[in-house]
Specification:
Length: about 350
């Protein structure tokens, strides 16, 4: 609970009271995107909904404000008919960063993450046809590209295209996840005119590499639906280096322990599960976008000679990181292709 409260306090810690809130209203339309052939039957019609966002522009008080061309940040609220009688209605509340992609600020990339609610999750008695999601409460992320057309000093038209994703991180089966491909046309109203500060890029001094050691983990459910929860644990070391005010590159090596794998391997001996299946060494490359003290980290990795191979060798991880002195706190998701493997909470300590 303390960690969640810390995440909720991040916007205040990062930006302070920089300027007035602005509002944007957007109708949404699109499609439910079945990423497995056995999910195609879920689609009954088109996705229809709306979004309301409250945002502020970074005021230039931090170096990265300038390097990201004074991005916006805020909260987005969504509601939509999911285009499926088996899924019902979806709701979401997400923290977002809206990053300009050019100096004229006409093109933008919005990255968002938060919590969502699905009204019709899988139910053994009332909704056995929902093979996508087993819980009402889910994590949700969004990625969107949009165009900004200023009609006046206070009003903008902002058409865009993007994807919204729902997943419970395998906390409760089924968990194929929900992907929504969406078009939007937003109308933004700025309550107070504000000039964009001059871009001042400070020269970075020599950057030293960092070595971190940490631990992360979570819980997951496997088939049959309604079964036990199994623990997942990672012990890892990270080598990374910040190459600019925006970006950090690095690598990670670690050991993954997944208690559920011994019950999933068809090649296990007939006399019982083989606990050796649970251990998988791994190596991964990472890239991190820095919004000090927040960061968004992406990892692409591979297992090293695992006994359990049904997941394949490649995995992806997505982390929201909070830096506090010599510690990193993070929350995120691990997936194999488009299928979530488990949610993660973790901590790392900076050795160097």
């Amino acid at each position: 609970m303390k960690f969640l409260l810390l995440l909720l306090s991040v916007p205040v810690l990062v930006f302070g009271q920089s300027n007035k809130w602005d509002i944007e209203v957007s109708p949404l339309g699109g499609v439910l995107m079945p990423h497995h052939a056995d999910m195609e039957y879920l689609v009954d019609g088109h996705v229809l909904g709306g979004e309301v966002t409250f945002s502020k522009r970074a005021d230039g008080s931090k170096d990265w404000h300038h390097r990201f061309l004074f991005p916006r940040w805020g909260v987005a609220l969504n509601a939509y008919d999911l285009g499926s009688s088996h899924l019902g209605t979806g709701y979401a509340s997400r923290l977002f960063f809206d990053l300009p992609l050019n100096k004229t600020r006409e093109l933008g990339l919005k990255i968002s993450f938060g919590a969502g609610w699905i009204t019709n999750p899988f139910d053994e008695e009332d909704n056995v046809r929902n093979s996508a999601i087993g819980s009402s409460l889910n994590a949700t992320v969004g990625l969107e590209v949009h165009y900004n057309l200023n009609l006046s000093d206070k009003i903008s038209i902002r058409p865009g295209i993007g994807i919204h994703h729902y997943s419970n991180g395998a906390w409760k089966m089924p968990n194929s996840g929900i992907n929504l491909g969406l078009l939007r046309v937003g109308i933004m109203y700025r309550f107070e005119e504000s000039e964009i500060p001059e871009i001042l890029i400070k020269e970075m001094g020599p950057q030293t590499s960092e070595i971190l050691a940490g631990i992360s983990g979570g819980l997951k459910e496997i088939l049959p639906i309604g079964g036990d929860k199994y623990g997942v644990l990672n012990l890892f070391g990270i080598y990374q280096k910040r190459i600019s005010g925006k970006s950090t590159f690095g690598g990670e090596i670690g050991l993954n322990y997944n208690e559920s794998l011994q019950y999933k391997n068809d090649d296990s001996p007939s006399d019982g599960p083989n606990q050796s299946d649970n251990y998988r060494a791994y190596i991964s490359a990472l890239y991190q976008l820095n919004f000090d003290p927040i960061a968004i980290r992406f990892s692409l990795g591979s297992y090293i000679a695992p006994r359990f191979t049904d997941d394949g060798f490649i995995f992806l991880r997505y982390h929201l990181v909070y830096e506090v002195e010599r510690f990193q706190l993070f929350i995120g998701l691990k997936s194999h292709y488009a299928k979530a493997d488990n949610g993660e909470l973790g901590i790392a300590y900076r050795l160097k």
